[in-house]
Specification:
The chain is of the alpha+beta class and 330 residues long. The protein folds into 2 domains: 72-244, no CATH class; 248-323, no CATH class. Helix content is 62%, strand content 11%. It has 8 helices and 6 strands. The protein is elongated.
Length: 330
């Protein structure tokens, strides 16, 4: 039947289109989120870096690509720490699950001869007490983080506030979530007559799931906060390194039409000889390029001083800029 085959072909094409649209959305969504995170942390790091030199990062005019390219150096340490913590957690999780599985096997009657000094009930109770103690520890850590949040007006000057607070909350919430999950596994090892109903033991299922989602949201938000703090520290560290190594930045010779009245001892001012057609009358040496924006350059002197300032030079023909070779013969 031609009509039926055409309809079947249309359905097949529509199904393939829906499949590709779904696949594209599945790939694009994580990529978009990742790109947004890279942009944000690159922006936070750059803002802290150039604020050290008195520059608002928005005045530079960096592009989205520039911020994304600056983020990997900032995220290197947090990613390494998260990887190591995750590896340690997985190792601990495997060990705990093995002990729970062994206790369950011994309680149900092992296939072979029982192990000497094996007491499944005591082992299960020991694991349960350990997990309950871990949950109390997690609650104490979360409580400490909340106290730090409330005490922010009084301890805002503490250098490690932005890192200690989110880490306490994140690790505390993670310990609580894992302990609750492991206690559920241990709970299933009880004999059926002694086992309380799930709603009586842990509350309604919906409430438990909602609490679990909220805990994961708290963990994600805390990790985000801690990573942003590390990004600020990274940017400030880069700025301090540049401030002590201005000589490694590109050296610039600046010619201007008017005198700039730069007072830094590292900057040498020379008056150019008057000649016909010469529009630039003053030359400045000892300047270094900190960063170049879309239509302007930001210059700093050869050595950092609290009394210095960053010179903003527009690239509109009002000045003439020359970049010097490095003082290193090939």
């Amino acid at each position: 039947m031609p009509g039926r085959s055409a309809v079947a072909g249309d359905k097949s094409a529509a199904g393939q289109l829906e499949h590709w649209v779904s696949l594209t959305a599945t790939i694009a969504a994580p990529v978009t989120v990742l790109g947004a995170l890279l942009f944000y942390f690159g922006y936070v790091s750059s803002a802290a870096e150039y604020a050290y030199f008195g520059i608002n990062v928005d005045a530079i005019g960096l592009s989205t690509r520039d911020y994304v390219m600056r983020s990997p150096q900032t995220l290197l340490v947090p990613l390494l720490v998260l990887t190591l913590v995750s590896a340690g957690f997985l190792t601990l999780n495997v060990a705990i699950r093995r002990r729970i599985a062994w206790a369950a096997e011994q309680a149900s009657g092992p296939a072979g001869p029982p192990e000497p000094d094996a007491d499944p009930a005591r082992e299960i109770e020991y694991i349960r007490q350990l997990l309950r103690g871990s949950r109390i520890t997690g609650l104490a850590m979360v409580t400490g983080g909340v106290v730090l949040l409330l005490a922010y007006p009084y301890i805002r000057g503490w250098a490690f506030y932005g890192l200690a607070t989110p880490l306490l909350i994140a690790f505390g919430a993670a310990i609580i979530a894992y302990a609750a999950h492991a206690l559920t596994l241990v709970h299933r090892l009880r004999p059926a007559p002694d086992r309380p109903a799930p709603d009586q033991a842990d509350g309604p299922v919906l409430a438990r799931r909602t609490a679990g989602v909220l805990i994961y949201v708290v963990i994600a938000a805390s990790i985000f906060w801690a990573t942003a703090t590390v990004a600020q520290w990274s940017g400030r560290g880069l700025a301090r390194y540049d401030a002590t190594h201005f000589g490694e930045l590109p050296s610039v010779i600046l010619d201007s039409r008017e005198r700039l009245f730069l007072r830094d001892p590292w900057i040498e001012e020379t008056q150019l000889p008057r000649s016909q057609g010469q529009t630039f009358h003053y030359r400045y040496r000892g300047l270094h390029l900190l960063i170049e924006g879309q239509d302007r350059m930001f210059l700093v002197p050869g050595s950092w001083s609290a009394s210095d300032s960053t010179l903003i030079v527009p690239l509109d023909g009002s000045v003439r800029v020359q970049f010097q070779f490095q003082d290193q013969a090939p």
